[in-house]
């Protein structure tokens, strides 16, 4: 069954309940933006070729997107940043929004320059909320695709599948390749990815969720107590026992902590044609890198958790083979990347001594206790009591399993 793709599927402010705070904010914001100025800027950047802004738009909690079409057939999108719902001005909220935009731009430029991952090309941007357009914006290539999670719902796919079974496997294989490709890049700091405006060099800077960092070690107090890593109090004790040395001292690998079906554009066959919303890209400890994509039916159960409800037991039974399958797909992707890298090294060997290739990283750790501990920390941020209780029980089980009883002095 074919479904509308790209701009044909955009429903604008109807994505929100009419009269809601989100709906009112969206309609007021879009009416205030100077779209004619944005079109003029776009035309000037594209060699003076006339363009027009489409009436249809897509919108999420933070960013409305409208398509810009040029007379020569080229298409861009304008992606703007919504103001916060709270009546706040200045301060950390605006600084945080600006940093988020800069991380997203840096991530798109990094991936476009260094990987085959399909990301839009950035043509221009402005992070200043007081600019003449009326909001921070990015002008970038339009990719004709639909968010995978939305297309799955529109096509009413079978439970847990993205398309037909063969399409679903290809979709997950492509996800695994993207995740494995990101993890190739190593840094000596933990934090979000930025680009220097003057030198164009990429670097690791402050984490956009906390405004803190970068950190040279995952043992830094700010890392273990920040909302970014979510803080049940037992986390720092457990990760110290279960994590590998590389997690503490680095190198730290690139990951997208918001990687999942809600940020992947696909065509009607569920082939990935674009990766969007890249403000979650960061250099992180290996346990954070080795996480399953979100909203893809790949949720692990807490270590040692035993379900008694029939529906939950059935869900777990369906999910486990998919977890193993995705792990294996990541392993294949890592092996293919390593093989291609080794061939390139052989070609360069006659003239130079290239650095050693990094070892495979993700597949062997996806089902590890250490990665599960980090998964619990990430889910703990949802502040849902039943989720927190389930993971706290799992943490206590893990902690008890590592405790060694004191020796009997009389024995």
UniProtKB/TrEMBL annotation:
It comes from Lasiosphaeria ovina. Residues 58-285 form the Aminoglycoside phosphotransferase domain. This is Aminoglycoside phosphotransferase domain-containing protein. Gene3D superfamilies: Phosphorylase Kinase, domain 1 (3.30.200.20). It holds the Pfam family APH. Signal peptide: none annotated. It comes from the Eukaryota.
């Amino acid at each position: 069954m074919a479904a509308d793709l790209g701009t044909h599927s955009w429903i604008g402010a109807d994505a929100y309940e009419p009269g809601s705070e989100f709906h009112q904010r969206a309609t007021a914001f879009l009416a205030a933006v100077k779209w004619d100025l944005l079109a003029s800027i776009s035309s000037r950047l594209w060699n003076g070729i006339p363009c027009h802004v489409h009436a249809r738009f897509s919108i999420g909690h933070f960013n409305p997107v409208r398509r810009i079409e040029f007379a020569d057939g080229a298409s861009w999108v304008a992606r703007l940043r919504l103001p916060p719902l709270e009546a706040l001005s200045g301060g950390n909220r605006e600084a945080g929004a600006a940093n988020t935009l800069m991380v997203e731009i840096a991530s798109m430029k990094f991936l476009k320059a260094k990987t085959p991952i399909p990301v839009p090309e950035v043509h221009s941007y402005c992070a200043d909320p007081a600019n003449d357009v009326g909001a921070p914006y990015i002008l970038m290539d339009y990719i004709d695709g639909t968010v995978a999670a939305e297309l799955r719902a529109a096509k009413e796919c079978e439970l847990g599948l993205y398309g037909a079974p063969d399409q679903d496997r290809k979709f997950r294989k492509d996800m695994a390749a993207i995740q494995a490709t990101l993890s190739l890049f190593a840094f000596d700091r933990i934090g979000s990815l930025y680009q220097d405006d003057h030198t164009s060099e990429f670097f690791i800077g402050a984490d956009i969720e906390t405004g803190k960092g970068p950190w040279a070690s995952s043992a830094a107090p700010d890392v273990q107590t920040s909302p970014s890593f979510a803080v049940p109090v037992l986390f720092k004790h457990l990760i110290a026992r279960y994590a590998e040395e590389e997690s503490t001292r680095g190198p730290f690998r690139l990951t997208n902590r918001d990687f999942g079906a809600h940020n992947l554009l696909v065509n009607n066959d569920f082939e990935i044609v674009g990766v969007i919303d890249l403000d979650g890209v960061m250099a992180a400890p290996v346990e954070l890198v080795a996480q399953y994509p979100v909203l893809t039916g790949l949720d692990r159960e807490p270590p040692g958790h035993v379900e008694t409800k029939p529906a939950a037991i059935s869900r777990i039974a369906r999910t486990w083979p998919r977890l193993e399958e995705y792990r294996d797909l990541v392993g294949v992707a890592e092996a293919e990347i390593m093989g291609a890298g080794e061939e390139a090294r052989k070609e360069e060997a006659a003239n130079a001594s290239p650095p050693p290739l990094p070892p495979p990283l993700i597949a062997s750790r996806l089902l590890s206790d250490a990665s599960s501990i980090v998964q619990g920390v990430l889910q703990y941020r949802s502040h849902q009591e039943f989720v927190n209780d389930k993971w706290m029980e799992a943490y206590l089980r893990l902690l008890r399993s590592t405790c060694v009883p004191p020796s009997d002095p009389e024995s």
